[in-house]
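Weekly puzzle thread! Below is a chain. First person to post its structure in token form gets bragging rights.
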Amino acid sequence: MRDRHRRPIVASMTTTTDHVTPPVGAGAWGRLFAAIYNPVLWAGERAGMRSRRRDLLALARGRTLELGSGTGLNLPHYPGDLDELILAEPAAPMRRRLTKAVRRSNRTATILDATAERLPVDDGSVDTVVATLVLCTVDRPVVVLDEIKRVLRPGGRLLFLEHVRADSAWLAACQDRLERPWKRFAEGCRCNRATVELIDAAGFSVEHRTDGTWRAMPAIVRPVVLGSAAR
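Winning reply:
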């Protein structure tokens, strides 16, 4: 019988290289952003994002590593038969909420204080990497995608759910105009990033993608893509 009071494992890693996104979430706004994150996303989750998470994470297999786990919104949707679940989150205010979410979920998970650019995980040791609403936040997405390739086993999969640059020229222009203020508000999020194109350029084989609309959210982050890519 599982111990309902068993705590998640929390590990720490500090990195000091110029190839790593600077720490976020340490200031007053970072703490407030972590506190309002779930309420801000609540309508969008109910309007379809929650079901997208469920559909995507049903594909996770084996040893699974999630990048930028935030407050733990993905936790309820992981299969129960994973070999291991590892949750990486560099922002301390988010990580505190993530730890509480893992405890409430009665799941076993290892929580890492680590950025997506420098993961304390061995080469070729992970079956599935999950990135949901996180590849928009990193300063060096090419570095992150190379790191994902490093930790994935041959044939391993990247599961992604990201808002992306709009196909509409008018909306893409709005995204470009509002990119800087939105980045400041949303703790590093770039609303105009062409993420799937970056995944493809990094040498992944995109197996499938589903384009959609993140309803009940600001127009500049409504274009979303769900998919998987093989190493």
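Puzzle host: Confirmed. Bonus trivia for everyone else. The domain at 24-230 is CATH 3.40.50.150 (Rossmann fold).
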